Amino acid sequence: MTDSGSPAAPPPAPPDWTGFARAGEWRRALAAARLTGADHAAGLLEAVLAVQDGLRARRLGPARRSAGRLRELLEAAGASGEAALLGSLTRPRELDGALDALADSGETDPGTLRERLAPALAHPLTRAEALNMLGVLHALREEPGEARTLFGGALEADAGHYRAGTNLGNLDLEAGRPAEAEARYREVLRLSPEYDGAHHNLGVALRRQGRLQESVRSIRHAQRLGNKRLQESSREDLRDQFRSSEAIRRLRWGLIAGAAGLLWLLLRGQGG
């Protein structure tokens, strides 16, 4: 009988989703929760991710609806350990005010804008978008140093905030560094392959480096993705208007009632 040597090492412990959640790595937290069968936590984490996805795309309507869904799920869960942890991390009672602070106001003074954005800057889910908004204002004011710092801060708050990454590439492009801008845009597209803005700006960076065929391909791809995004946004806007408009709801029920009345008349006529 041969000696098999030292005993086999035990299998690695499954990842703990709570550690990822505490670090704000929501997608990894969700993957870990699914892997370990923490289905209830996974449902909550899906709602958190939906809020984050809406913010990254600056689609505040879907982000608000996802925040409402998250709040409902947390309230339904009561004081369970998973819900208590996620509630402390996402602070749902503060989230609506933070999202409201992100609405466009046309503010042109950075100090005033920062003051208005205070609730969003203080919330972990909205901080990245608030910093990105401040960075955009400084970029428009031709203050690239301040803008770069703020875009970098946005990525520190949310490494997947692809518009902040794109904005850093835009600063490189404006500074006459198309190769650095290209690298930024390619990193953004690694995170978000269907972000049309990065594809378009990558095309500009490639053109400035004399790579015309690559540039044309990138810009055409951006146009296709942009058209797709506009169609999806238009459908979403129509659904929002339909849900929010009391007049439309009344019209809908009026049409249903009218159709029922017409059907009754037709049936009556057939029986007469």
Description of the molecule:
This protein is mainly α and 272 residues long. Helix content is 77%, strand content 0%. Helix 13 runs antiparallel to helix 14. The longest helix is centred in the last third of the chain and has 33 residues, at 212-244. Mean pLDDT is 86; it is low at 246-260 and 262-266.
Query: Radius of gyration from the CA trace?
Result: 25 Å
Sequence of secondary-structure elements: HHHHHHHHHHHHHHH
Overall SS class: mainly alpha
In percent terms, what proportion of residues is strand? under 5%
Overall form: globular
Poorly predicted parts: 246-260, 262-266
Task: Count up the helices.
Answer: 15
Largest sheet: none
Put the structure in a nutshell.
By secondary structure, the protein is mainly α.
Present the secondary structure layout.
Blueprint: H1 17-22, H2 26-35, H3 39-56, H4 60-77, H5 81-90, H6 92-101, H7 110-116, H8 118-121, H9 127-140, H10 144-157, H11 162-174, H12 178-191, H13 196-208, H14 212-244, H15 246-271
Helix pairs in contact: 2-3, 3-4, 3-5, 4-5, 4-6, 9-10, 9-11, 10-11, 11-12, 11-13, 12-13, 13-14
Please tag this protein with its features:
272 residues; mainly alpha
